[in-house]
Amino acid sequence: MSESLIVFKAIHNEAEKQTLLQRLVNSGETIVLRDKFDRSITLRTMGVNDKLQIKCHPPESTAMNTEDSARFTASFSIKGEKYLFETHPVINETNITLTVLNLFHLQKRKNYRYVIPADYSAEFVVTYLNQSVCSHTCRLLDLSTEGCAVEIPQTEANLHLEDLVEAEIFLGDRDPIVVQGLIKNIRVKNDETLVLGVEFNHMANASEGKIVASLTDLQRDIYFRRTG
């Protein structure tokens, strides 16, 4: 059974944000604050005001530097539902103030195909075609734990339905993800380009986990880059 993908859904309504944050405080759930070096601290909430600022008890100790203008990410859960937001933490002797910026609901979706933004570096490099060594670099268009769509120049390879491909997926500067699958769909995009639909027929658990983790990180990069 394939893992669910994590899909970021932005929460824009101010009243909805306020209600959600009040539920967080009332629930007694903690907030995990994380910096760009992936260091984290756990915070206990004290209250929230109408400016979407959460007051938290100060941690006993932290190696984080909150003096600069770098943004931090913070996450919390309410009844199994996970949320993520950006913040500039302000620390004093009695509390930490987290102003909530760009709040997202992290939703789990089965068989969801995430469309890769056109300006994001994403490649599908075919290393074996019907068990013969090759090297064909394709543009990755969308991705799920079940399969993907890719673009390839028509002159690049002689391809047919049900061809077996082994490939490495490169998302940004992350380590490659090894996949294997069958070509289930071929359509002509234009005079020079084909779009292939690949259905994964064998996926190591590690690769499936990497797809889920990489797409979660990718969305975080993209959304926070747009709003930064």
UniProtKB/TrEMBL annotation:
The lineage of its organism: Bacteria, Pseudomonadati, Bdellovibrionota, Bdellovibrionia, Bdellovibrionales. Residues 107-215 form the PilZ domain. This is PilZ domain-containing protein. Pfam families: PilZ. Gene3D superfamilies: predicted glycosyltransferase like domains. GO terms for molecular function: cyclic-di-GMP binding. It comes from the Bacteria.
